[in-house]
Amino acid sequence: MKVGIVGAGMVGSSAGYALALTGTASEVVLVDVSEKLAIAQAEDIAHATPFHSATKVRAGDYQALAGAGIVILACGVNQKPGESRLALLERNAEVFRQVVGAVLAVAPDAILLIASNPVDIMTEITTRLSGLPATRVIGSGTILDTARFRSLLGRHLGISPQSVHAYVLGEHGDSEVLTWSNALAGSVSVASFAEQVGRPLTPELRAEIDDNVRNAAYRIIEGKGSTYYGIGAGLARLVKAIALDQRAVFSVSILTPEVEGVRDVALSVPRVVGASGVIVDLFPELDAAEHAALARSAALLKEKTASLQL
Ligand SMILES: NC(=O)C1=CN([C@@H]2O[C@H](COP(=O)(O)OP(=O)(O)OC[C@H]3O[C@@H](n4cnc5c(N)ncnc54)[C@H](O)[C@@H]3O)[C@@H](O)[C@H]2O)C=CC1
Ligand SMILES: CC(=O)C(=O)O
């Protein structure tokens, strides 16, 4: 499958690199307002492929996106140290007003994968600007937060993160919800697994993991300016699920008719992803505190989008 990436900065190029190394795409086309940057990134990534795959990587203009099955949108601005994702909204909404129409004019059948922040609201904006069905405009949502949660739980329990089935729901941002009540390690609850291996999940440890997941981006941005390897790998994983019609479950964000009583809001719940985009939404059983936190997250996103002029 041919995959387009608009925004050849750190996130876009990392996604391109992950796609090329894994051979998930037959062709990757990088587009950026800085043609020079897109050409340099494509050339650099192309030099990695001979070690691992036959993916063709090149830079191009919007016309070069014709025939793409998926277009990733990773354009716009990123956070400065201490800045929230929501603070990027006006600037990135303006970028998307220019970009979405240009992409659709040449690749009307592509599934759009949104990475730019605040990703839930950018997903809603893209859905509304494009007129595409919500199931074909997929925000990376909390895939990265879910990966961070699984990584920390796996490390604590001494097992592979792939054997941890735990999700972060809601906003990809400060109001996100770590769902402990339904988290599994293998086939048992993480709490039971932790007791059985003598590493109980104390309230202090849960609070520490929550903080490490919720504030990971702030810490990484403080240390190195931006985050990109995690989301790059996550975007490549979503492309694989779509390209191979895997019907795999991810906590991705799409404009959803109703979540916890809030209507028409984009946020993450677990969803089945395959060739046509999102196939099924899943609403996991939550405890009362998680329900309330998800409702607060949905209400916050709804409030932020209410004033948007599209
Ligand atoms: N969803 C997630 O989990 C994550 C999202 N992000 C978000 O991804 C976005 C990109 O972040 P980075 O790659 O670090 O930023 P970056 O600044 O390295 O790259 C952004 C690129 O967008 C390009 N761009 C700006 N306006 C454009 C336009 N009108 N048309 C085409 N290209 C345009 C810029 O020239 C730049 O190369 C940010 O909004 C960031 O917050 C970052 C990490 C994780
Ligand atoms: C920047 C961002 O959204 C993240 O790393 O989670």
List the helices and strands and how they pair.
Elements: E1 2-6, H1 10-22, E2 27-31, H2 35-46, E3 56-59, E4 70-73, H3 89-106, E5 111-114, H4 119-130, E6 137-139, H5 143-157, E7 164-165, E8 168-169, E9 177-178, E10 184-185, E11 188-189, H6 190-196, H7 203-214, H8 216-224, H9 229-243, E12 248-259, E13 262-274, E14 277-281, H10 288-306
Parallel strand pairs: 1-2, 1-4, 2-3, 4-5, 5-6
Antiparallel strand pairs: 7-10, 8-9, 10-11, 12-13, 13-14
CATH architecture tag of the largest domain: Alpha-Beta Complex
CATH top level of the largest domain is Alpha Beta
The number of helices is 10
Number of strand segments: 14
Q: What's the number of structural domains?
A: 2
What percent of residues adopt helix (DSSP H or I)? 40-55%
Shape: globular
Poorly predicted runs are none
Briefly note the CATH topology name of the largest domain: L-2-Hydroxyisocaproate Dehydrogenase, Chain A, domain 2
Gyration radius from CA atoms, angstroms = 19 Å
Distance between the termini: 31 Å
Which band does the percent of strand residues land in?
Answer: 15-25%
| Structural class label | alpha/beta
Output the helix-strand order: EHEHEEHEHEHEEEEEHHHHEEEH
Domain Lactate/malate dehydrogenase N-terminal: 1-139
Active site: 172
Main location: cytoplasm
Catalytic activity: (S)-lactate + NAD(+) = pyruvate + NADH + H(+)
Detailed description of the structure:
By secondary structure, the chain is of the alpha/beta class. It has 2 domains: 2-139, Rossmann fold (3-Layer(aba) Sandwich); 142-307, Alpha-Beta Complex (L-2-Hydroxyisocaproate Dehydrogenase, Chain A, domain 2). It contains 10 helices and 14 strands. The chain has helices at 10-22, 35-46, 89-106, 119-130, 143-157, 190-196, 203-214, 216-224, 229-243, 288-306, and strands at 2-6, 27-31, 56-59, 70-73, 111-114, 137-139, 164-165, 168-169, 177-178, 184-185, 188-189, 248-259, 262-274, 277-281. It has a 6-stranded parallel beta sheet, sandwiched between helices. A hairpin with a 2-residue loop joins strand 13 and strand 14. Helix 1 (10-22) packs parallel to helix 2, helix 1 (10-22) packs across helix 9 (229-243) and helix 5 (143-157) packs antiparallel against helix 7 (203-214). The radius of gyration is 19 Å and the shape is globular. The structure holds 1,4-dihydronicotinamide adenine dinucleotide (NAI) and pyruvic acid (PYR). 1,4-dihydronicotinamide adenine dinucleotide binds next to helix 1 and helix 3.
